[in-house]
Design goal:
The chain is α/β, with parallel strands linked by helices. The chain has 11 helices and 13 strands.
Length: about 350
């Protein structure tokens, strides 16, 4: 199979690359490296089944040809992360909306009907205070249109594009609402809580819980997410549908801090930080966010394989190994007795 992955050098995209190369598929990655990184694909450097174009889907001339080659497309390219979205709302609108439209137009003009997964987000449920969300739950935004909601609105538009192209042109498209995905290669730079907590716990810095820590999330291991997306793309029944993807176990951020601290055997303190201090402006955090996964289960039979504890343990040990490698390297550089540097 020929698999095209936009945002394939990013966090979730690179795990889709792993999955499909393992299956023996041919994979073409398009990524502008804005938040993705070449190192995320480094394990496949010598794999002839991987081709990477470090280009921008908004402007790249080769997009139409790349799309016409594909049997399957995962459209993961997006500006993500709360901090990034607050810093660059224009970039968010460009990539997340124009990029998607350009991709779907290219598919339409290609005259070939690959199966497409379009990445949306649980952010579209907005501030709805429901304790869990199925795909029919109302989407609730504040009317004073804070930039905070730019990301959610762009992802909602992506869903509308997906459904319009499905209905208008019969394209094989499924839009997925991804709930808090975590795992290797996710970086904390753009605000994501788990890599931040793991980094803080391993290095013994205070673990920074925003607000009172009673807000909750449901975290899904990225390797489970990749399997779920593969399963959805593999069934015609998913086309024309919007589907929640995640793990339905719920945990408060306060409990998460304890869990990470425990997993790392860390002496870090747990510190509460106000939202204003954390985000630098007034901010609407979402109190709860737990997916109802009936539709995903019905379409694919999917069940997550990774427990939260397993993922956190895995991340702590990866972080330790990376930190040790860097420390050893630095020590080596500064070791006057080391003759081989
Ligand atoms: N959060 C936190 N400390 C951090 C980073 C995030 O307490 O260092 C909180 C954040 O306010 C939110 C939750 O963790 O309540 C999840 O944040 P993230 O940005 O990972 O995802 P999202 O808010 O998009 O669900």
């Amino acid at each position: 199979m020929h698999v095209l992955i936009t945002g394939g050098a990013g966090f979730i995209g690179s795990h889709l690359v792993d999955l499909h190369l393992k299956n023996g598929d041919k994979v073409h990655v398009i990524d502008n490296l804005s938040t993705g990184a070449r190192r995320n694909l480094a394990a496949h450097d010598r794999n002839k089944n991987l081709r990477a174009s470090f280009e921008d889907i908004e402007t790249w001339n080769g997009l139409r040809e790349a799309v016409a080659w594909a049997d399957r497309i995962y459209h993961m390219a997006a500006v993500v992360g709360v901090q990034r979205v607050l810093d660059d709302p224009i970039g968010v609108l460009g990539t997340n909306v124009s990029g998607t439209e350009r991709l779907l137009q290219a598919v339409h003009r290609g005259g070939w009907n690959p199966s497409c997964i379009i990445a949306s987000s649980s952010e579209v449920y907005g501030l709805n205070p429901a304790d869990q969300f199925d795909e029919a739950t109302d989407l609730t935004f504040k009317s004073n249109s804070r930039l905070r909601w730019t990301y959610a609105v762009t992802k909602l538009l992506d869903e509308f594009y997906a459904m319009a192209y499905h209905r208008g042109y019969g394209q094989n498209i499924c839009a997925v609402r991804l709930f808090n995905t975590i795992g290797p290669r996710q970086v904390g730079t753009y605000g994501m809580v788990v890599p931040r907590f793991v980094q803080q716990a391993v290095s013994g810095e205070p673990i920074t819980v925003y607000g009172d820590g009673s807000q909750s999330r449901s975290f899904c291991d990225v390797r489970d997410t990749a399997r779920a997306l593969d399963a959805l793309a593999s069934t015609e029944r998913s086309f024309g549908q919007i589907v929640n993807v995640g793990n339905d176990r719920e945990i408060t951020i306060g409990e998460l801090a304890e869990l990470v601290k425990h997993s790392a055997g860390s002496k870090s303190t747990i510190e509460h930080v106000s939202y204003e201090a954390a985000y630098g402006q007034e901010y609407d955090d979402i109190p709860r966010r737990r997916p109802v996964l009936d539709r995903l289960r019905d379409l694919t039979g999917f069940e997550p394989e990774w427990s939260l504890e397993q993922t956190i343990d895995n991340l702590v040990s990866l972080k330790r190994n990376t930190t040790r490698t860097i420390d050893e390297f630095v020590n080596l550089q500064h070791d006057p007795t080391a003759s081989h540097v």
